[in-house]
Design a protein that fits this description.
Radius of gyration: 19 Å
Shape: globular
Oligomer: single chain
Number of strands: 9
Order of helices and strands: EHEHEHEHHHEHEHHHEEE
Distance between the termini: 40 Å
CATH architecture of the largest domain: 3-Layer(aba) Sandwich
Strand content: 15-25%
CATH superfamily of the largest domain: HUPs
Number of domains: 2
Strand order of the largest sheet: 1-4-3-2-5-6
Length: 283
């Protein structure tokens, strides 16, 4: 695996792959890799001849009171995992390399970014859209793969690519990969390591409450009452608060008050101890 840390090194590495006639898939990450990330790498390997992974803890998507400083950074361990998976290229820029002196551009995606995590974390998706657009322009992949656990993020990235007429990758080549879960159903996340032993046990209530809510909705329960019951379940199970629990259109992310005919998602964000967990499931 080749590791590059400057845009010049990256351009040379990508040009060499292209000159060899190889297609390229990109898996953007913030590091602290787990099986969920590795599932993206493995899917990427089925889509393209070569796989690039980026590791960059993006300060632009963290708010002033969020966990930027505490976010786990394990470059040596992450690199070893990627080598074991047969990744071709690791793009690991510094903050100064990604946002050089004088940087003054920001991308804001209206609509899909405004509710859910966008309401709870103002400016978060501007930071996401901006850094992903830069990654696309830097790496110029044929495909890019993201986990479906961050469903709103995936919707924002697709809208950004569509609206800016990005061709590498095209909207159709921005692929969502199903969420990887632990044995008790909790979605894998780099932030799970923040949980104490008791909090980790209590956190299993999140996927269970969501599955119960989906079953209730399919059985005819009213959306409002079902979502209220989901929130009550989480608070009783040890969660400190619920940022949101919404049934939404899977594409527009507009909240639904009744079951629709198109694809829908149940999306939840809740806090336990000092950790904010998100999850979503198809309905």
């Amino acid at each position: 695996m080749q590791t590059v840390t400057t845009r010049k090194m990256l351009r040379t590495a990508v040009d060499e792959l292209r000159a060899a006639g190889r297609t390229l898939a990109l898996v953007p990450t913030m590091g602290a890799l787990h099986e969920g990330h590795l599932s993206l790498v493995r899917e990427a390997q089925t889509r393209a001849d070569a796989v690039a992974v980026s590791i960059f803890v993006n300060p632009a998507q963290f708010g002033p009171n969020e966990d930027l400083d505490a976010y786990p950074r394990r470059m040596a361990e992450d690199s070893a995992l990627l080598v074991a998976e047969g990744v071709d290229l690791l793009w690991a820029p510094t903050v100064d390399e990604m946002y050089p002196a004088g940087y003054a551009t920001n991308i804001s995606v209206s609509g899909v970014s405004e509710g859910l995590c966008g309401a709870a974390r103002p400016g978060h998706f501007d930071g996401v859209a901006t850094v992903v657009c830069k990654l696309f322009n830097q790496v110029r992949p044929d495909f890019a793969l993201f986990g479906e656990k961050d469903w709103q993020q995936l919707a924002v990235i697709r809208a950004m690519a569509r609206d800016l007429d990005l061709t590498q990758p095209s909207v159709e080549c921005i692929l969502g990969v199903p969420t990887v879960r632990e044995a008790d159903g909790l979605a894998l996340s780099s932030r799970n390591q923040y949980l104490s032993q008791q909090e980790r046990a209590d956190a299993a209530a999140l996927p269970q409450a969501m599955r119960d809510a989906i079953a209730a909705l399919k059985a005819g329960s009213a959306v409002g009452a079902t979502l209220a019951a989901l929130e009550a379940h989480l608070l009783q199970a040890g969660f400190d608060s619920v940022d949101y629990a919404e049934l939404a259109d899977a594409v527009s992310l507009k909240p639904l008050e009744t079951l629709g005919e198109g694809p829908m998602r149940l999306l939840v964000a809740a806090r336990i101890g000092g950790t904010r967990l998100i999850d979503n499931m198809a309905v």
